[in-house]
Write a structure and sequence with these properties.
Layout lengths: L33 H4 L15 H31 L3 E2 H7 L8 H16 L1 E7 L4 E6 L19 H13 L4 E2 H9 L15 H12 L2 E5 L8 E5 L1 H6 L2 H12 L11 H9 L2
Length: 274
């Protein structure tokens, strides 16, 4: 999962490039916009407006430093989540080197976005006076997929959110091949163990069906047999289409035009803008 695609998990109408599998947590994290995520290249000698190589190297070095700091903060947040312990701003500041404290707001925002998009966890301030935070599954969901007896097990709510969003965008029912096409754009493929989510086919067709988040059924009268996904009763009970819309607006800044059944007034408001 590339560093420039976790930020765009819910941009299902965009064509995402399937990535190579990361080897470390830092390689699996988002880093702002696509322009920011690209490591600066060496400038062309013929271009007079391009900064000198020293400036480019400094920019690349700063990008790498921020990447490491965000990976450290995300790792810390995951440990606190597994331990079910409150998180304080002072503790998070302690993760960032003393000579880089001025970059904490940016690192904090990017780490928060990563926790939401990659792991499906909202970092919420629970006590503004004490600057205390807590991580909770987003959209009102209560399942995170963390195995208590496996210290390497990571939250998988982020993938569940993506699947629910795809079904929502497809009009409450999505063919299995459409689901895998969307997940493939973010490097999640059936039969291939993913760095964060493990083997995804078992999640979609077994675990989430048993948990009540998905319904997996054969398309009526299909020959050869084709299958489709719908929201399960637990998904309907814990979240809603309104929450999905709010999530899309939050992470994408707008509702994707591929959503086939938005109320006309919502579409019109989105097209008109503020």
């Amino acid at each position: 999962m590339p560093v420039d695609q976790l930020r765009d998990l819910c941009k299902m109408e965009a064509e995402l490039q399937a990535p190579a599998q990361p080897q470390t947590l830092a390689e699996a994290l988002p880093f702002g916009s696509e322009e920011e995520a690209e490591t600066p290249s060496t400038p062309s000698p013929s271009s007079s407006s391009v900064p000198p190589p020293s400036s480019v190297e400094a920019e690349a070095s700063l990008w790498d430093i921020r990447r490491v700091m965000m990976a450290d903060l995300v790792g810390y947040l995951l440990l606190k989540y597994r331990a079910k312990e409150p998180i304080t701003k002072a503790e998070m500041l302690g993760v960032v080197p003393r000579d880089a404290q001025d970059q904490f707001p940016d690192v904090f925002c990017r780490a928060s976005a990563c926790m939401l998009l990659a792991f499906g966890l909202d970092l919420k301030e629970v006590d503004p006076g004490e600057h205390t935070y807590a991580l909770v599954p987003t959209l009102g969901l209560t399942w995170d997929g963390v195995l208590s007896d496996d210290e390497l097990s990571l939250p998988k709510t982020g993938l569940l959110v993506v699947v629910l969003v795809v079904i929502f965008l497809q009009g409450d029912c999505s063919l299995e091949e459409e689901i895998w096409r969307a997940l493939g754009r973010m490097g999640v493929c059936a039969g291939k163990v993913h760095y964060i989510y493990g083997e995804p086919r078992a999640l979609l067709t077994q675990v989430w069906v048993q948990e009540g988040y998905l319904e997996y059924r054969q398309v009526p009268h299909s020959d050869p047999a084709r299958y489709e996904f719908l929201w399960g009763p637990r998904a309907h009970a814990e979240t809603s289409k309104v929450k999905i819309l709010e999530h899309l607006l939050r992470v994408n800044g707008r509702v994707p035009r591929s959503c086939r059944f938005l109320p006309e007034e919502v579409v019109n408001e989105e097209e008109e803008g503020p």
